Predict the 3D structure of the following.
Amino acid sequence: MDFDAAKQRRVLQARSYVRLAPNIVHLNTVHGNHEIAIEVEAGIASLTFYEGNPVQSAELLMAAAEAVTAQDRSIKSVAFEGHQASLPRHILSAGKLDSAILWQWPSLWLPQLTYPLPPVQQMTAGSYHPRRPAKPKGTVYQRFIPWLERDISFRVADPETDLADFHRWMNDEQVNTIWEDAGSIDRHREILEERIADPHILPLIGSFADIPFGYFEVYWAKENRLGAYYDADDCDRGWHVAIGEPDYRGKKWISAWLPSLMHFIFLDDPRTKHIVGEPRASHEQQIRNLDRSGFAKIKHFDFPHKRALLVMLTRERFFGDHLWVPAS
């Protein structure tokens, strides 16, 4: 059977799932409602559809595999009783779907797929780096978070629709302590327009169930100020975050947005092997959160404006250790 990425995205747009019992998952997609029995042995989850029409499609099977691996780090692979033939052969190993392969399949979570540009180099402000692709517009990532029973999404920031939120967030006392960007609405319009125009930064708005809660920047490390402080690979990326809505701060929400943002970054370009960050060395809570999320502490260094800690998350660790599931 041919695998249709556009069909995959349509099937999964409205998906949701809930574990009804330790060995039963209820899955909802555009195909309808399905109940799936799970048997786990030696890290292999065997799935059987026993209620609802088990549509013979790769899209439904991958949605089912997502549902059973989204909260359990111990499941290394998934087998489908009687349905393996619906999956593309090249993603199977010994008749099973590896969890690390599943979670690197971009059409499950990226509403619009992009492809890396051929490796054409260019020079920007003394940095020799690959030419970056044109920036997308609209939603770039969407995922159902089962422990919150709602979607998280990231979309590209738009000064016309997001300025009021961005202005309020940047003037929040807690955000300003880190960002130091409090100011007028005209100043904040300039910042957003500057970030959108900068080819090395992708400014994003994060939402839970369509309610905006924070501002994120994803950047190419080589062209960033951080690139001068370590030996950055061509496709390393870093990120900044401002959680503007107080109601969405704390462990409950970090457990969803932090691994989801890392997941988006790795899916956006398959050549990205490392995600880096540079929190203030004194920001102990943020460093603990990063440590729990798989980031290694590399070194301390001095920016002109702060003492920072370089942290790094590898693609191998994120997918190998199933870090899309938050630490318990």
